[in-house]
Amino acid sequence: MFRLAQQDDLTRILEIYNQVIERRTVTADLVPATKENRQTWFNQHLNHAKYPIWVYELDGQMICTALFWAIYILIFAIALIGIVVGNFYYYKTYNNYYDMLMFGLVEDDTKAVLKNIYDDYPVIS
Asked: Which residues cross the membrane (predicted)?
């Protein structure tokens, strides 16, 4: 179940975060976090009204943490706007689906596209 982080959760939160640092997947941090260098950050978010630290427990053991910052919301919004605007202008370029197909064939390698269509066509004998 999800719950707000408490003061004694910092050690386990850092264990989970340091596992992520070792994998080099989600964070840009390269050096494992310590209690000393994260205590101020933790205290700032512990009872934060807008961006508190959440933890998820399963069978009484904390298995993950979550912290939402305004920057993540901003990045998501920018990406979403970019996709919507990009699709709008992409489809406005062409008058209908036939134009998209024809201009797409012209812009791409037409011979390769037609060869794939021909090769996938079933042969009836």
From this structure: 66-90
Q: Does domain 2-69 have CATH number 3.40.630.30?
A: yes
- Phi, psi for residue 35 in degrees, rounded to 5: -60, -35
Token pair listed for 26: 């989600």
Q: What is the pLDDT of residues 80-118, one digit of tens each?
A: 666 655 555 555 555 555 555 555 555 556 666 667 666
DSSP sequence for 32-89: ---HHHHHHHHHHHHT-SSS-EEEEEETTEEEEEEE--HHHHHHHHHHHHHHHHHHHH
Q: Which of 70, 62, 51, 49 is nearest to 17 (CA)?
A: 62
**Model's pTM, two decimal places?**
0.54
